[in-house]
Amino acid sequence: MDLFEKLLANQGPLGKHSEVSEGYFMFPKLEGEISARMQFMGKEVLTWSLNNYLGLANQPEVRKADADAAAEWGLAYPMGARMMSGNTVYHEQLEQELADFVDKESGLLLNYGYQGVLSIIDALVDRKDVIVYDAESHASIIDGVRLHMGKRFVFPHNDIENLEKQLARATKLTNETGGGILVITEGVFGMSGNLGKLREIADLKEKYEFRIFVDDAHGFGTMGATGAGAGEELDCQDEIDVYFSTFAKSMAAIGAFVAGSKEIVHFLKYNLRSQIFAKSLPMPFVIGALKRLEMLRDDPSHKEKLWTIVTALQGGLQEKGFNIGTTQSPVTPVVLNGTVGEAAALSQDLRENFSIFCSAVIYPVVPKGTIILRLIPTAMHSLADVDETISAFEAIMGKLKSGEYRNAEVAVAFGE
């Protein structure tokens, strides 16, 4: 069979809906200034789909730093991979400031978060080693684990009892192979908003020999007294051996970093294939990240405003009887029961009749029959935005329960 013929015959669980969803539900175009209110298909919508937690994306100081750096350096400098010809004092300054902020000895810049996670996992383990990871880990972790040529054991989300069983299995195996154990989890799980049980995982080090790698993409900047992340929030930052975060969330930019002891970061510096064989992060992204980090670190008002909105949104939804799961972070999932078609119909209703834009998470990301409306509160939002959204959600909940969305045109188009 021809390879392409096989692929085109099965577009996948999301691709099969592309004819009725592309440009609206998938790959939509939000236009205008990055803000709580943007333009979607010619109309203003209140948007809850941007991971701009601290509202830094369009801060005047940030925009100026980006523009000045682009004017001074252009987008090409530095040319080449950092190991060969692309290193600068600014890259090294940013690495150390990031490491200091998350209370680690050393840091290393990464061009992209997804790519960086894959490469970190690849560098840390070989075929003799065993990976033990949380079942609800981000796709970048799952894909990194899939690349691992040794054994990997998964434990149900935040199930410490089962984790210990997997550690016992891994210990027995590594005693035979002479390998080590890497436990991988997240600081904040981006779909549920739960915190990883970092303290409980760290406590198992007293019984088992392993290292911990934490992806804190949603925790950096939002959690902890200073915003240093989930480890700070849970008072176990010292126990995290390899700390990772992306700039795509609180920093509102492109790039990422990994931090840890000087020795392990030095090892990664010389073994991360995604960095060794990639062009250095362009100077405007580096200078811009320095400004963003300064604002995140030195001005707590951004985080305080974020949590004012988080508290109002989550408390208001719960007061009205909505199920927001067990979130412990700004990530706010509103869990509903319904089909993929009903998810499309209610999302369309929110956008067209209530001017509210949020992401609907459907099967296969969540089980069949479940819809999650995922809200990302930010420092850009207002309390009036919260009230408007809760009122709209009350209206769509009534329609969902009455079956009004079941036979909607868009629901029928999805074949549900």
What does this 3D model show about the protein?
With 416 residues, the protein is α/β, with parallel strands linked by helices. The protein has 2 domains: 3-53 and 301-413, Aspartate Aminotransferase, domain 1; 60-298, Aspartate Aminotransferase, domain 2 (3-Layer(aba) Sandwich). It contains 17 helices and 14 strands. It has helices at 3-9, 12-15, 18-21, 60-73, 89-101, 113-124, 139-147, 160-177, 198-203, 230-233, 262-269, 273-276, 283-298, 301-319, 340-353, 383-402, 409-413, and strands at residues 30-31, 37-40, 43-47, 106-110, 130-134, 151-155, 181-186, 211-215, 242-246, 256-260, 332-337, 356-357, 359-361, 370-375. The strands form 3 sheets. Strands 4-10-9-8-7-5-6 form a 7-stranded mixed β-sheet. Strands 1-2-3-12 form a 4-stranded mixed β-sheet. A hairpin with a 5-residue loop joins strand 1 and strand 2 (37-40). Helix 4 (60-73) runs antiparallel to helix 13 (283-298) and helix 15 (340-353) packs across helix 16. The chain is globular and about 60 Å long. The protein starts with a helix and ends with a helix. The relative contact order is 0.15.
Which keywords apply here?
416 residues, alpha/beta, Aspartate Aminotransferase, domain 1, Aspartate Aminotransferase, domain 2, 2 domains, seven-stranded mixed beta sheet, four-stranded mixed beta sheet
Instruction: Supply the number of helical segments.
Output: 17
Number of domains: 2
CATH top level class name of the largest domain: Alpha Beta
Radius of gyration: 22 Å
Lateral arrangement of strands in the main beta sheet: 4-10-9-8-7-5-6
Major sheet characteristics: 7 strands, mixed
CATH superfamily of the largest domain: Type I PLP-dependent aspartate aminotransferase-like (Major domain)
Integer average pLDDT: 95
Strand tally = 14
Using the 3D structure, state the CATH architecture of the largest domain. 3-Layer(aba) Sandwich
CA-based shape: globular
Structural class: alpha/beta
Q: CATH topology of the largest domain, which one?
A: Aspartate Aminotransferase, domain 2
What percent of residues adopt helix (DSSP H or I)? 40-55%
In whole angstroms, the N-to-C terminal distance is 31 Å
Assembly type: single chain
Relative strand content: 15-25%
Unreliable segments of 5+ consecutive residues: none
